[in-house]
Amino acid sequence: MTLSITIDLSDNDLDHFQEVLKRAQHNAVNRSTQEITDAAARLVAGASQVQVPEFIGQRLAKLDSLIRMVHDRGWALSADDRQRVLTALAYFADPKDVIPDSVPVVGYLDDAIMIELCVRELKHELEAYDDFCSFVRSESAERGVDPATLDREDWLEEHRRELHERMQRRRERDRYSGGDAAGGMFRFR
């Protein structure tokens, strides 16, 4: 049997989480990238030692993706994007949790809420990074190369090639389906 629980956060609730995040960011100003990501990784590791509800586990997996994104040399985040992700991760480096993680069942609830807020803010970055990771896995296997040898430029080149192939297929489809019955406007001799 499953039980569905919906949590509606009001504007005041969201303001509260924003304020908590701002305090955490302020406290993390003098922390290095490694310190921030290590603290977030400890949260993920700690949660893996206990049984957490599935919805929390799913969000912790996304937190792990944010951590990996920061350190992935092949992905090579721009300075601005890197700072956005680190800003989001700052909450998890702050020892002052809204709900202490040691509280059974709900200890990671505040973390899950904050992860969800961060994931929504960084949705496009996470989608692109997930796509990049899929590309690296499949291409390294197909080419028989070390995944570390593939980077963002390889990924972008592959996307460019796919877009050109799609454009050519559509052009051919239009030509043979009557969409280009007159031979087209452009004729070359």
Structure characteristics:
7 helices, 66% helix, mainly alpha, 189 residues
List the helices and strands and how they pair.
Elements: H1 11-27, H2 33-48, H3 54-71, H4 79-93, H5 109-121, H6 123-143, H7 152-176
Write up this protein:
It is a single chain. The chain is mainly α. It has seven helices and no strands. It has helices spanning 11-27, 33-48, 54-71, 79-93, 109-121, 123-143, 152-176. Helix 2 (33-48) runs antiparallel to helix 3, helix 3 (54-71) packs across helix 5 and helix 4 packs antiparallel against helix 5. The chain starts with 10 loop residues before the first helix and ends in a 13-residue tail after the last helix.
Summarize the structure in short:
By secondary structure, this protein is mainly α. The protein contains seven helices and no strands. The N and C termini lie far apart (71 Å).
